[in-house]
C-alpha cells in the first residue's frame, strides 16, 4: 500500500525547488515552514489512509445508465470527505473562500492524491483548471456565481476541447455557439474524452466548452470559451433547471477505470423546451483558446505530477515485493535459504533506476511550480523584469515536467511489473494497474510529442534564446559546486554532469540556430530526443543540488542516488545530442522505408 | 489489420540469417528456395486472413466452469484448420509424421502466427516445446504413444514448472512423484501459470510436469520430468480414462486474455479411484531439469519471436493510423487542409524507430534459429567442431533473442499507443491490447533479468570467451564492408558501427575479466545494460548486412533504415558500456538509498 513520502517531498520542495529560500525572503505571504510541514503531513495521511485503501474499487468501472454515471463504491463519500478537509481549495483565491497557498504546495499534495489513486484524483485536477480559467478570464457575475463552489469542490469542473476530428489541432473544431440575445449563448455539438463529464461526486458540474460563433473567423482565432453548467443555478445559486447536455457514453479504456471518460452531447433537445445548452462567455469572443491555455498550463504541470506519482507508487510496490519475495541465492548471500530478490544486483539496478528517475522528475516538476509561484509573487510586488523571468522559467519547464515525468511514469510502472515477475502480469497484484493508469499521462493534455514541439519552437526562443541559456548556466553552477566539494563519495558525478550539460548546450544551440535559419523540420525532427536530454540533464542536476545539502538527514543516501544516476543513466545524453544534431537527415531519408 | 510481411521475412531469412547460403550448400536436405517461398506465402495468408480476423475475440476471455475452459468464439475451429494445414508439424520428426523442416522456417511462421494473434498462437509454442523434450529424452514407448499426435497438433502440450514459491528458482519446487511399482508414477501437487493447461482445442492435453521423488536429493539435482496426460491413452492410443488432474482456476491477467493461464491440481482425488495423477518418467530420474531445458531453449527463442511479432503488428497498426489521421499542418505540407500525422517529423521518428528495432530484433532471432539448424546439420554430418561452434552460437544468441526482442516488443507497442493519441488509450482501437499482450513476453520463459544473467555468466565464458570474441570479429567484418563500400548513402554508418562494436568488445572483456577475478556481483550488476548493448550493436550490424545486399529490391530503403538506426539509436551503446564497466560500485552504494 502507498505510503506518502512526506519527508522526501518536503525536502525537495524546500531545498531543491526553492521553497525554503522563498519562505526566508517572505515571498509567500505569511506562510511558514511549520505550516508547510503540517499541511504535507496531513495530506500524506489522507492519501495513505483514506484514498489508497479505496483505489482498487476503481477497477469495477463507472457504469452509465440513462445519462447517469455511477462512480466506484465509496468514492463519492471519499470525495466529500476530501473537500471537507479543504483539499480542493488550497490555491483558490481567498476572496472566494480559497486558501491562497502557493502552487508548490498544491502540486506536492496532488502528487500524493495521484499516487494513492490517479483515477479518483483526476476529478479535482480538472476543477482546479476550471477555477484558474474563471479566475483569470470570467466576468464578475460568473465569478460570483461559480467560483466559491468550484474552489470548495462542492461543484466540479471539466475541460471540453476534443472532438473526434479535432485533438491536437483545435483549430478545426465544429461545436457551435449562438448568441441568445440576452447575453447568454446556446451551445450545440459533441465533445469526446471529457474526464468526469458526468458523475455523482457533486450536485453540479461546470463544463468549460470551446465552441465557434457563427461569424467567427476560421481556425484557432475563431474559438470562444463558454461556461455551461449541468444545472443552471437559480437566484440563490443552487442547482436549478437541468441544462440541455448529457453524457452519451463512457469509454472502455486501458486504464484509470474509475475515472469516467465521457462523450458529451450539447444542445440536442434531450433536456429543456428548446434545443441548445445554455452557456456564458468566458473572456472575449474568439479569444477562447488563450483562456483555455490558462487551464492547460496548470493541467500540464499537474499531469506531469501524475507521472511522478505513479512512478513513486510503482517504486514502493516493487520495493515491498522485492523485500518479501525470495528466489535463488544472490552472490554473497549469507542468509538461510533463498535470498529476497532485492539482494540480486539486477533487481537493485531496476529499483535504484526507478527511484532516481522518480526523484529527478519530481524535482523538475516542483521547480516548475516554484517558478509559477515566484512569477505570481513578483507580479504582486510589481517587479516586472522578475515576473517575466519567472514566467519564462515556468513556460520552459512546463513541457519537461509534463513529458519527461509522464514518460518516467510509464517506464517506472513497467519496471515495477517486471520486478514482480509472473505476479506482475496478474491483475490482482496491482502492479499492472499502475502501468495501465500511467499510460494515459503521456497522451492527454497535449501528447508528449506536442510538448516536445512546444519546448523547441516556443520555449527555446523565449527572450531570443537567452532564457534557456541562463537556465543552463544555473545548472552548470550546481555542477561546479559538486566539483568544488572534492567529496570522493560523489565519484565521477561532476564530470558526468559537465558532459551532460555540454550536450544540453550543444543541442540547444543547434536547435536555436536551426530555427533561426528556418530549418523548422530539422528542428522538429529532434524535438523528442531533445526533451529527454533536457529532462535527464536537469533532473540529475537537481539530484546533485539535493545531495549538496549536508545539513538534512539522509545526505549519504542522496549522494549515492545522485552518483548512481550520473554514472549509470546520464551518459545517454551524448546519444540524444547526436540524434538532435545529426539525426534529422537520416530520419528524412528513412521515410522511404516506412512502406 | 495485420498483413504478414512475407517479403521482408524471406529476405531476412535468406540474406541476413544465412538461409540462402545453407540452401546453396545443401545443408538443409532437399529444401529449395522455392519451397521456402511457398511455405512463407501460405503461412502469411493463413495468419493475415484466418487468424487476424478472430484475434479480437480473445478479449472476451476464457471462462472456467466445473474444470472446463471455454476458449474464445471460433478459436477451436481455427485451431483445427490450422493443424489441418500442417502448421504444427513443420519441424517435427518425419518418423512421427513431421515435416523435418528447419527451425528457421518454423520461427518465421511463428512470427506471423503471433503477430496476427499472440494469445491464440501461444498454445502451439508449448506443444512444440513438449515435442522437442519428448523427442530428445523420452523412451520409445512414450514416443510411439504421444509423438505423432503432438506433432500433428491433434493433442497439445504444456510445461508445468512454476509453483507459487518457485518461479525463477526451480530448485525449491514441492510437487512430488511416487513410484507406482509398474513403471509408472503418481504425481501430487499444484502448478501455477500453466499456459493452455485446459482448453477445448483438442481431445487430449499432454502435461510435462517437474516433480520430486521421495528419495531425491535436494535442490535442482533432485527434480524429475514426467509426462502426465489429461486422458490416459487406451490400447489403440485414443483418449481413455480421465487422469487425476484438473484446472482449478484461470488467472485474470493484464493481457493475452484469450490464452487460459491455469492453476493445475495433480492427484487430489477428484478423478479416478485412488488419488494420484498417473505419469511416466521422461529421461532419467533426477535429471528432469536438463530435459526441461530442451523445452526452455526452444521456448525462449520463440518468446523472443513474440516480441518481434507484436512489435511488427504495432508498427503496422500505427503506420495505418498515421497515414489516415489528419491533424495540424506539418512543416512543408503543401496539401489541402490538415496533413496526415505521418507528415510530422516526430511521428516519423517514432515509426522509423519502431521499424528499425523490429527488423533488428527479427534478424537476431532468425540468426539464432539459423545457428540451431546449422548445429543440427553439422551433427548429422558428424562434424563435431562445427557442431560445437553452432551450438555455442545458438546458446549465445538465445538470451539476446529472448530479452532484447521482447523489450523491443513492449517499447514498440507503447510507441504504437502513443502514435494513436487519445484513441490509443481506448480499447476498441486494439493498440492498447498489443501493449498488454506484449508485456508478458519479458516475464515468462525466464525473466529478461534471468536472460541477462544467463548471457553473462554462462554464455560469455563459452570456449573460454573465444566464442563471443569470434562473434564480435564477425560483426566487425560487416562494419568493415560498409566502410569499404564508400557509399555516401550510408552516411556515418560505418563509424557508428565501429564505435558500437568497440563498446561491445570493451564491455565483453570487462565482464570476462570480472568473472575470472571472481567479481560475480559486479558482473551481474551490469548484465541488463550489457544485454541491451549486445542487442543494439548486433541488431544494427544485421541491418547493415541486409543493406549491403544490392541485388534485391528495396535496397535503398534498407540502407536508409540502417543509417537511421546507426545515426539515431546506436550511440546509446556508449552509455550502456559505461554502466557495465563503471556502474557497479555506485549501484552497490545506492542500495542504501532504497529505504
Explain this structure:
Two copies of one chain form a homodimer. The first copy, chain A, has 19 helices and twelve strands. Chain A has helices spanning 6-17, 19-24, 33-51, 75-84, 103-116, 118-137, 140-152, 288-324, 345-380, 384-419, 431-438, 448-459, 466-485, 493-516, 520-525, 527-547, 555-569, 572-582, 584-590; strands at residues 64-65, 68-69, 156-160, 176-179, 185-195, 205-211, 224-229, 231-233, 239-242, 245-250, 261-266, 277-282. Chain A is globular, with a radius of gyration of 24 Å. At the A-B interface, helix 9, helix 10, helix 11, helix 12 and helix 15 of A face helix 9, helix 10, helix 11, helix 12 and helix 13 of B. Chains A, B: Keywords: FAD, Flavoprotein, Oxidoreductase. Chains A, B: Its cofactor is FAD. Chains A, B: Residues 38-154 form the Acyl-CoA dehydrogenase/oxidase N-terminal domain.
Structure in a nutshell:
The structure is a homodimer of 595-residue chains. Chain A is of the alpha+beta class.
Amino acid at each position: 500500500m502507498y505510503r506518502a513520502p512526506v519527508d522526501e517531498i518536503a525536502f525537495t520542495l524546500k531545498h531543491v525547488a526553492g521553497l525554503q529560500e522563498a519562505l526566508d525572503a517572505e515571498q509567500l505571504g505569511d506562510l511558514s515552514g511549520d505550516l508547510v510541514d503540517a499541511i504535507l503531513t496531513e495530506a500524506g495521511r489522507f492519501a495513505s489512509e483514506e484514498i489508497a485503501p479505496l483505489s482498487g474499487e476503481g477497477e469495477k468501472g463507472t457504469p452509465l445508465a440513462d445519462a447517469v454515471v455511477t462512480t466506484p463504491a465509496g468514492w463519492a463519500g471519499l470525495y466529500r470527505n476530501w473537500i471537507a478537509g479543504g483539499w480542493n481549495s488550497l490555491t483558490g483565491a481567498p476572496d472566494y473562500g480559497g486558501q491562497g497557498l502557493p502552487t508548490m504546495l498544491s502540486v506536492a499534495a496532488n502528487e500524493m492524491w495521484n499516487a494513492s489513486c490517479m483515477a479518483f484524483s483526476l476529478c479535482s485536477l480538472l476543477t482546479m483548471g476550471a477555477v484558474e480559467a474563471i479566475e483569470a478570464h470570467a466576468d464578475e457575475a460568473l465569478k460570483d456565481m461559480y467560483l466559491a463552489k468550484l474552489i470548495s469542490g462542492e461543484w466540479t469542473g471539466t475541460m471540453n476541447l476534443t472532438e473526434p476530428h479535432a485533438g491536437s489541432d483545435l483549430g478545426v473544431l465544429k461545436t457551435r455557439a449562438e448568441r441568445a440575445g440576452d447575453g447568454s449563448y446556446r451551445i450545440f455539438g459533441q465533445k469526446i474524452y471529457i474526464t468526469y463529464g458526468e458523475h455523482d461526486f457533486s450536485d453540479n458540474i461546470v463544463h468549460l466548452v470551446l465552441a465557434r460563433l457563427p461569424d467567427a473567423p476560421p481556425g484557432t482565432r475563431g474559438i470562444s470559451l463558454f461556461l455551461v453548467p449541468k444545472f443552471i443555478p437559480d437566484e440563490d445559486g443552487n442547482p436549478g433547471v437541468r441544462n440541455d447536455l448529457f453524457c452519451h457514453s463512457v469509454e472502455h479504456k486501458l486504464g484509470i477505470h474509475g475515472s469516467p471518460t465521457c462523450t458529451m452531447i450539447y444542445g440536442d433537445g434531450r433536456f429543456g423546451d428548446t434545443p441548445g445548452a445554455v452557456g456564458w462567455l468566458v473572456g472575449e469572443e474568439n479569444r477562447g483558446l488563450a483562456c483555455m491555455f490558462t487551464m492547460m498550463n496548470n493541467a500540464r504541470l499537474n499531469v506531469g505530477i501524475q507521472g511522478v506519482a505513479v512512478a513513486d507508487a510503482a517504486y514502493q510496490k516493487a520495493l515491498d515485493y522485492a523485500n518479501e519475495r525470495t528466489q535463488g541465492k544472490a552472490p554473497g548471500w549469507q542468509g538461510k535459504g533463498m535470498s529476497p530478490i532485492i539482494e540480486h544486483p539486477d533487481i537493485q539496478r531496476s529499483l535504484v533506476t526507478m527511484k532516481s528517475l522518480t526523484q529527478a522528475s519530481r524535482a523538475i516538476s516542483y521547480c516548475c511550480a516554484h517558478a509559477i509561484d515566484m512569477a505570481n509573487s513578483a507580479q504582486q510586488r510589481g517587479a516586472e523584469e522578475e515576473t517575466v523571468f519567472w514566467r519564462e522559467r515556468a513556460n520552459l519547464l512546463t513541457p519537461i515536467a509534463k513529458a519527461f515525468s509522464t514518460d518516467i511514469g510509464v517506464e517506472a510502472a513497467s519496471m515495477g511489473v517486471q520486478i514482480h515477475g509472473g505476479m506482475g502480469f496478474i491483475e490482482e497484484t496491482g502492479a499492472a494497474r499502475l502501468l495501465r493508469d500511467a499510460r494515459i499521462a503521456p497522451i492527454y493534455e497535449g501528447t508528449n510529442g506536442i510538448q516536445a514541439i512546444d519546448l523547441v519552437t516556443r520555449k527555446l526562443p523565449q527572450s531570443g534564446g537567452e532564457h534557456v541559456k541562463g537556465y543552463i548556466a544555473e545548472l552548470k553552477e550546481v555542477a561546479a559546486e559538486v566539483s568544488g566539494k572534492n567529496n570522493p563519495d560523489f565519484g565521477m558525478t561532476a564530470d558526468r554532469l559537465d558532459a551532460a550539460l555540454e550536450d544540453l548546450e550543444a543541442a540547444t544551440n543547434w536547435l536555436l540556430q536551426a530555427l533561426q535559419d528556418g530549418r523548422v523540420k530539422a528542428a522538429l525532427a529532434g524535438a523528442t530526443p531533445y526533451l529527454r536530454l533536457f529532462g535527464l540533464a536537469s533532473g540529475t542536476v537537481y539530484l546533485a543540488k539535493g545531495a549538496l545539502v549536508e545539513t538534512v538527514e539522509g545526505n549519504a543516501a542522496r549522494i549515492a542516488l545522485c552518483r548512481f544516476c550520473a554514472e549509470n543513466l546520464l551518459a545517454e545524453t551524448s546519444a540524444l545530442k547526436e540524434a538532435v544534431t545529426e539525426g534529422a537527415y537520416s530520419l528524412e531519408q528513412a521515410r522511404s522505408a516506412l512502406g
